[in-house]
Write a structure and sequence with these properties.
By secondary structure, the chain is mostly helical. The protein has one domain. It contains 4 helices and no strands. Helix 1 crosses helix 2.
């Protein structure tokens, strides 16, 4: 048997308060992007993929807000809500 580290599954856990903060920040950034006439989904995807805060408007302090969180925290919130929505639709 191989004891290669790449064969082991790593655990990742986010605190509950971080989840609430991520949800609130994503909502505020979405609103700010919409108000400025941007496609919020495209802009958020650009930010999440690149890490470049220039994808996020400074309107409504959105750029500062989104930089308060790590991208992995934002991604976790998005995936969790997507899967929750998918499970609800299947019932």
């Amino acid at each position: 048997m191989s004891s290669d580290v790449s064969e082991k599954t790593m655990m990742f856990k986010v605190q509950a308060e971080d989840v609430d903060l991520a949800r609130d920040i994503l909502h505020q950034v979405y609103v700010a992007l919409s108000e400025k006439g941007y496609n919020p989904i495209n802009q958020l995807v650009g930010y999440l993929l690149s890490g470049d805060p220039a994808y996020i408007t400074s309107h409504g302090n959105a750029r500062s807000l989104i930089r308060r969180l790590e991208r992995d925290e934002l991604l976790e919130e998005l995936v969790k809500n997507y899967l929750k929505q998918e499970n609800t639709e299947q019932l």
